[in-house]
Design goal:
20 strands; 14 helices; binds manganese (II) ion; binds ligand BES; six-stranded mixed β-sheet; binds zinc ion; 514 residues; nine-stranded mixed β-sheet; elongated; alpha/beta
């Protein structure tokens, strides 16, 4: 991959007894109240009550994911024991399980031990199977080891943290559990790619760079790759997508990747917004935090990530990825407010705000998707600031013209903690896009900004089942730990795995306990 490198860890499954494991750090969980879970109990017995006395003293914070590092416990082979809080027993569920695993992942990623044994997947989670626990844990542990150290960006970082993690299970390790480990790991690898692409600066990760990444992925996994240039796009009549990058010195690219694992079945099409930097164009954005607009290609990044996961797992489905990639710049050749463009669908658009550019690229990508006769199309985009206002950084916005597809995506989000929430696209909202000068304008005013953006896209997606994920709030975090989150790769991957397994959605997900 061109100057992007993700840090991969090794993950294995074992059934050994915890006190006998030779490892740098052994991770055991304990509830803030109530008896010790089986693995912790074994360590407590082997060390003649050391764990229970530490807990009795009140040294372990109650909050799930808080941890305490204990050295040289007598009777225990591991060099260190990381005691992780599972929170209150009564409240234990998906959330505290994930918090405990993530807390452990964070602690061992920053520590000196190079290998670890983790016992947390042995702890029952209400309504969830062992396979689910292993899938979640392997993803969270591998993701916790992620570091951004692409060359040219930051010079030399000290190599720390675990590189090998073993999941200790007392239960049987059957094929389903082994598969769960592979799945979780592959999703984390997809997330790492999405994070790397998101974190790269706009002067490195431009449309041509994304095209190169597509070609590299194509080579590695045998995907069919096509990159349409400006001239090709002109021939197809993509006046809408072309308008976005027309003032940039970086040529726009229209990237198509095809993964074929599903024979003659209809493909699932993923469309990712690939604005590699969004200045707003002539409708220039304010200066504060504008650097964060390098994350405006995170929809595309999540599509790259999901493609990598699907190809790694060789899922028996067909998936097409479409990325309209462009840089939104002001300049002499830029679109002006009031310009009218003709989309590939033939519908005309009055560009009233050049900062509502994502939908202009997506519109033509959605029309282009028709040629694949898709089973469904899902677009993923950092589309609106309004979505951040509505749902914050916790939840992605979901819109769909098909209830079943919406339900499947919501369930995939729930199963992975990468959650979305559905918002309406009632016909009445379409009126907000009315203009005297074209079939529609590209903005609908401030009220319901995410909804009118989705309603705009809907006009280009009426030939198939379609869903739109607005990830403007969930794609990246700001502040001290600024960076891409890799979302919604977990949601998308879970959805694709579910489709590959012909999952009976809504009844049992295959990841829930029977
Ligand atoms: N990329 C932005 C949306 C965005 C905002 C993503 C904040 C992440 C954080 C998008 O292109 C945009 O500028 N949208 C405008 C639309 C408006 C002009 C109708 C917005 O949300 O302000
Ligand atoms: Mn914009
Ligand atoms: Zn944008």
């Amino acid at each position: 991959m061109p100057s992007v490198k993700s840090n991969s860890i090794e993950l294995t499954l074992e059934t050994e007894s915890p006190e006998k494991v030779h490892t740098g750090v052994l991770v055991v969980g304990a509830f803030a109240d109530g008896p010790l879970p089986p693995h912790a109990k074994k360590i407590d017995e082997a060390s003649k009550g050391k764990l229970s006395s530490v807990i009795k003293r009140g040294d372990l914070d109650e909050k799930a994911g808080a941890s305490l590092l204990l050295h040289d416990l007598p009777g225990v082979e591991a060099e260190r024991v990381l005691l992780v809080s599972l929170g209150k027993r009564e409240e234990f569920g998906d959330k505290s399980f994930r918090e405990a695993v993530s807390g452990a992942a964070k602690a061992i990623a920053g520590g000196t031990a190079r290998d670890a044994a983790v016992t947390l997947t042995d702890i029952e989670v209400p309504g969830r199977s062992q396979a689910w626990r292993v899938r979640e844990a392997s993803r969270l542990l591998a993701d916790g080891a992620y570091r951004f150290d692409a060359p040219r960006v930051k010079t030399s970082k000290k190599d720390r943290g675990v590189r090998r993690v073993t999941l200790l299970n007392s239960g049987k390790i059957n094929d389903e559990v082994k598969k769960a480990l592979r799945h979780g790991h592959a999703v984390a690898e997809g997330m790492a790619l999405a994070k790397d692409l998101g974190n790269l600066p706009g002067n490195v990760c431009n449309p041509s760079y994304l095209a190169d990444v597509a070609r590299a992925l194509g080579k590695e996994f045998g995907l069919k790759i096509e990159v349409l240039e400006r001239e090709d796009m002109k021939k197809l009549g993509m006046g809408s997508a072309l308008s976005v990058g027309q003032a940039s010195a970086q040529p726009c690219k229209f990237i198509v990747m095809q993964y074929k694992g599903g024979g003659k079945s209809k493909p699932i099409v993923l469309v990712g917004k690939g604005v590699t930097f969004d200045t707003g164009g002539i409708s220039l954005k304010p200066g504060a935090n504008m650097d964060e607009m390098k994350f405006d290609m995170c929809g595309a990044a999540s599509v790259f990530g999901a493609m990598k996961t699907v190809a790694t797992l060789e899922l028996p489905i067909n998936v097409v990825a479409i990325i309209p990639a462009a840089e939104n710049m002001p300049g002499g050749a830029a679109s002006r407010p009031g310009d009218v463009v003709t989309s590939m669908s033939g519908q005309t658009i009055e560009i009233l705000n050049t900062d509502a550019e994502g939908r202009l690229g997506l519109a033509d990508a959605l029309t282009y998707a028709e040629r694949f006769d898709p089973a469904c199309v899902i677009d993923i985009a950092t589309l609106t600031g309004a979505c951040v206002i509505a749902l914050g950084n916790i939840t992605s916005g979901l819109f769909a013209n098909d209830d079943e597809l919406a339900e499947q995506l919501l369930e995939s989000g729930n199963d992975t903690g990468d959650r979305a929430w559905r918002l309406p696209m009632f016909e009445e909202y379409q009126d907000l896009l009315k203009t005297n000068f074209a079939d529609m304008s590209n903005i609908g005013g401030r009220p319901a900004g995410s909804i009118t953006a989705a309603c705009f896209l809907k006009r280009f997606a009426d030939k198939y089942k379609w869903a739109h994920l607005d990830i403007a709030g969930t794609n990246a975090v700001t502040g001290d730990a600024k960076g891409a989150t890799g979302r919604p790769v977990p949601l998308l991957s879970e959805f694709l795995i579910g489709r590959a397994e012909n999952r009976a959605w809504g009844t049992t997900t295959g990841t829930r306990a029977a």
